[in-house]
Amino acid sequence: MHELHLSAQDKAARYREVLPQIAAVIADETDLTANLANTAAVLKEAFGWLWVGFYLAEPSGGELVLAPFQGPLACTRIPYGRGVCGHAWAGEKTIVVPNVDEYPGHIACSSLSRSEIVIPLFSGGRCVGVLDIDDIEYARFDNTDALYLEQLAQMLGVLFAAQKNV
Ligand code: SME
Question: Dihedrals φ, ψ of 53, to 5°?
């Protein structure tokens, strides 16, 4: 399913439906992998993006490693500061990329990807991973996505504190 051209208002409304759904799903489960997997699935179904998933920082801090996702095969490891994901991790800031071909150092996992947004995830004040979303259309992501996905990231951050494997 590929959801086409939601207006800014419709997009905000969709997020306001979806975020409480995710909150409800993860409230009943403490396992991080299970919760990230369901979060990726709910987002993919709701918005129809090409790829939705997580990369988690190795405890040593060297690389991001692929975690639960929905979409085509993806690269498994991203070094600190590399690609959009590595930049968001190092800079601890959301990055919106309207055209991936114009982003220096972009790592192309799928040749179908045209635009991307990466949101850092924080636990205990440090960045422990990122939520990465790609789409086949240019400029698919904007400040509305950043606003709601950062709220989601905050919600997910709480999960990390309870986990021993991160
Ligand atoms: N494009 C990302 C790599 C991950 S894939 O898009 C799933 C990047 O430049 O970091």
Answer: -170, -175
Rounded distance, CA 160 to CA 62, Å?
Answer: 19
pLDDT band per the 50, 70, 90 thresholds, residue 11 = very high
Model pTM above 0.85: yes
Pairing mode of beta strands 126-135, 51-57: antiparallel
Contact 49, 43 (CB under 8 A): yes
Give, using CA atoms, the residue closest to atom 3 of ligand 1.
Answer: 107
Is pLDDT at 4 greater than 80 in this prediction? no
Q: How far away, in angstroms, is 83 Cα from ligand 1 center? A: 6
CA dihedral 28, 34, 36, 41 (to 10 degrees): -90
